[in-house]
């Protein structure tokens, strides 16, 4: 069964795509959606966040969300869209293959990223992500022990880790992204079906809770022939 916020997101998205809501139309207020779906405010806000991240709606303070003109989706760092959701909106078929879920000790880099003592226990999930069956991303996600403990009971091949964590009460308040290039090591090469030392795009991503505490530190390595990123800037009013 899909998480409630995912069901709400998919239902509203279908109404937008089918033309039930047209560009410029207001969606019902959050309180109306809460009553309609018999849920608390959290799943409604997460569903609206997903729609906004996809570019289907926009919001202004004190007003219900409005439908914007649809556009071609792209993987952007302006907001976080889970890999599977981005792939589907781009017309690609996502796939997941979990290579390992383990409890291990944090080395120096991971400990620094999660603001833990070196040697503290963490949960690490390593997954191969595919697009239309082609290896695209080797994802190494490291979580603080309290955040990641529930992942031992979760089937990461069949669902979104982000959606699962939201459903168990984890709040994603902000993320920091660091991009660089890296040569594929043996593990990367085997999983992504590329030569050793082939160039990869690496994204190191840190997720923070509302108190500014990091709970996820990921090292994601993308094949550049499969995935690109876009970053949009706006001109400051100051010259």
From TrEMBL:
Keywords: DNA-binding, Transcription, Transcription regulation. InterPro entries: Bact_HTH_transcr_reg, Chorismate_lyase_/UTRA_dom_sf, Tscrpt_reg_HTH_GntR, UTRA, WH-like_DNA-bd_sf, WH_DNA-bd_sf. The keyword Transcription applies. One of its GO terms (molecular function) is DNA binding. It comes from the Bacteria. The keyword DNA-binding applies. One of its GO terms (biological process) is negative regulation of DNA-templated transcription. This is HTH-type transcriptional repressor YvoA.
